[in-house]
Specification:
197 residues; alpha+beta; Glutaredoxin; 60% helix; 14% strand; elongated
Amino acid sequence: MRTREHGLRYSKIARVYATALYQAAQEEDRLERVRGDLEDFVEAVTNSDELRQFLEAEEISDSRKKDALMDLTEGGDELFRNFLRLIVDKSRESELVGVREAFVELVEKAAGLVHVEVVTAVPLTASLQEALKKKIESSLNKTVELTMMVDEEILGGLRLRIGDRVADASVRHRLEKLRQLLTSPMASLEGSVEAAS
């Protein structure tokens, strides 16, 4: 199971470019090849300060950037290479990481894949992880990729994050809810009186 950085947000601009690239790649039946090239390229940019600075430098001409990109991606998918030319023409080099995130999200959504982050107080065995995965897949009716995390502060139970939704069934969360009820008896009493009337 790979680690995934949840909550990574990308701009509307990145989403627009990713959607255009996704639709073009889907029409050409080249989704996997374009995805591979995009992920490899963005990983290279992310891991190389020199390459990132080169791409984002305003004093370097677009034609020089495009020549360098075409050299770097020689043998790559032509649709992806055209996309890189467009990114440079529109001065959107800084959006590449966001474009990748949005593009991968579109591909996975179309494939019915959902990322679920599971936080437990202690590590789960492989068999428990598999049972939990099957239970979530059955509940969501989708293919699930689990990311397991351990946080001793939740005390017990588990917390799930599915996209932007969080299901908190941890002992710590239950204790916090109980503490809130105990420290605000008047609010509970008023609620009960209103319900009774």
